[in-house]
Amino acid sequence: MLVFVSADTEGEINAPVAVPRLVLCAVDEPLALAWLAVAEGRPGVEVHRGSVLDIVAEAVVSPANSLGWMRGGIDAVYARAFPQVEDNVRGAVLALHGGELPVGEALVVPTGETEPQWLISAPTMRRPGELLPGDTVHPYLAARAVLRLWLHGRLEDGRFVRQAVRTIAMPGLGTGVGGVAPTTCARQVAAAWDEVFSPLPRR
Questions:
Q1: 35-51: per-residue pLDDT in tens?
Q2: Distance, CA of 23 to CA of 31 (rounded, Å)
Q3: What DSSP letter does each residue of 132-196 carry, written as one string?
Q4: β-bridge pairing 59-62 and 118-121
Q5: What is the 3-state composition of the chain as percent helix, strand, coil, each rounded to the nearest 5?
Q6: What is the rounded CA–CA span in Å between residue 34 and residue 59?
Q7: Residue 9, pLDDT score
Q8: Tens digits of per-residue pLDDT, 108-139?
Q9: Whole-angstrom distance, CA of residue 59 vs CA of residue 121
Q10: Which whole-number Å values give the CA distances from 62 to 17, 52, 145, 159, 170, in the listed order?
Q11: How does the average pLDDT of the chain come out, rounded?
Q12: What is the CA radius of gyration of the chain?
């Protein structure tokens, strides 16, 4: 049975009691250096030089396409590691979004494995293989969707996603097939983190 929710509502963006452990992963040095530059000074954010699958985590992030196909880049790695996951993503996209999950929204599905138990699909492009423009904000939108889903989303059993997921492993968002510069991706992920987890000014 599929278990999934969508992060398509704003919710309150007051300071949460806790933040997730967000592990930013990079298999190449330019992205690792970009991640390191934004992780500093953000408690809860770490950098790992290596595969996202190296991390002991409850959830991994898929910088997917809106249609849910997982045939290229890190998504193909996930599909090989978790044979059920593409069907789970495609089924959730069809059931909840009429076949297309917009950039800026995210959903969580089971991987079919015990670790990581969950995959968070957050599109960075509409169609598979799309090259993103230099001024894209899609990494920001995808990261914000992931973090809002962690903070406000609920699983089918009624638990908040944040109760089931403490560690999220995140690869580059759009830095592979999408062609986004590592520094652009890192700055946008940091901006999403700050927006979601920084307290609103008191009035």
A1: 999 999 999 999 999 99
A2: 13
A3: PPTT--HHHHHHHHHHHHHHH-B-TTS-BHHHH-SEEEE--SSSSTT---HHHHHHHHHHHHHHH
A4: parallel
A5: 35, 15, 50
A6: 22
A7: 41
A8: 999 999 999 999 999 999 999 999 999 999 99
A9: 10
A10: 26, 10, 12, 22, 8
A11: 91
A12: 15
Region 154-176 average pLDDT: 95
Q: Which residues pair with 65 in a beta bridge?
A: 125
**Tokens standing for 92?**
């959730």
> What kind and span of H or E run contains 45?
strand 45-49
How far apart are the C-alpha atoms of 120 and 134, rounded to whole Å? 25
Residue corresponding to tokens 């530059």 = 37
Q: How many CA atoms lie within 13 A of 30 on its CB side?
A: 9
Q: Exposed, middle or buried: residue 84 (CB in 10 Å: 0-12, 13-18, 19+)?
A: middle
Q: Give the span between the Cα atoms of 186 and 172, in whole angstroms.
A: 8
Distance CA 99, CA 186 (A): 29
- In one letter, which amino acid is 24? L
6 with 153: CB under 8 angstroms?
Answer: yes
Above 60 in pLDDT, residue 202? no
Coil, strand or helix at 35: helix
pLDDT band per the 50, 70, 90 thresholds, residue 2: very low
Taking CA atoms, 49 is separated from 30, 82, 98, in Å, by 11, 22, 37
Class of domain 21-197: alpha beta
